[in-house]
């Protein structure tokens, strides 16, 4: 397995706000526009177990990075349905709590959903300490396939 590192300048720290993640990075990704600095990787959240994600999301050589960001394609449970497939080989990501609105100057631009990883299969899975925040653009649930990207942060 080859893991590519982003080319970032020494001392670079990536600490974007929710508004920046949705309003700049995710919006540009969905529109297939160039992002100025390649710091967020494309990762299939459902093919990789949570404990392996950090190796795929590394920005430069910063081992002290506490948040990991990646784009993930929104996989559907059924081809013609709207339910999201959040299963991996060893478990599943389960939504918890309410979605949080992401606003840009009081205008709703997206939502943030918190997901917790459970080992095993529903409904008998065992809760783990792995948590991600999944960001989505507002009103993109019925969008064309190229628009079904989420930006996810692993904390």
Provide a concise account of the structure shown.
It is built from two helices and six strands; from the N terminus they run H-E-H-E-E-E-E-E. With 155 residues, it is mainly beta.
Describe the structure.
- The chain has 155 residues and is mainly beta.
- It has a domain at 44-139 and 148-154: NAC domain (Metal Binding Protein, Guanine Nucleotide Exchange Factor, Chain A, Beta Complex), CATH 2.170.150.80.
- It has two helices and six strands, in the order αβαβββββ.
- The protein has helices at residues 18-30, 50-57, and strands at 41-42, 68-73, 91-104, 107-119, 126-137, 149-154.
- It has a six-stranded mixed sheet, with helices on both faces.
- The radius of gyration is 15 Å and the shape is globular.
Distance between the termini: 24 Å
Radius of gyration: 15 Å
Instruction: Name the CATH class of the domain at 44-139 and 148-154.
Output: Mainly Beta
Shape: globular
Helix content: 10-25%
Number of helices: 2
- CATH names the topology of the domain at 44-139 and 148-154 as Metal Binding Protein, Guanine Nucleotide Exchange Factor, Chain A
**CATH architecture descriptor of the domain at 44-139 and 148-154:** Beta Complex
Unreliable segments of 5+ consecutive residues? none
Percentage of residues in DSSP E strands: 25-35%
Helix/strand order, N-terminal first: HEHEEEEE
Helix and strand composition category: mainly beta
Let me know the largest β-sheet. Answer: 6 strands, mixed
Q: Provide mean pLDDT, rounded.
A: 79
Q: Major sheet: order of its strands?
A: 1-2-6-5-4-3
Compute the number of strand runs: 6
User: CATH superfamily of the domain at 44-139 and 148-154, called what?
Assistant: NAC domain
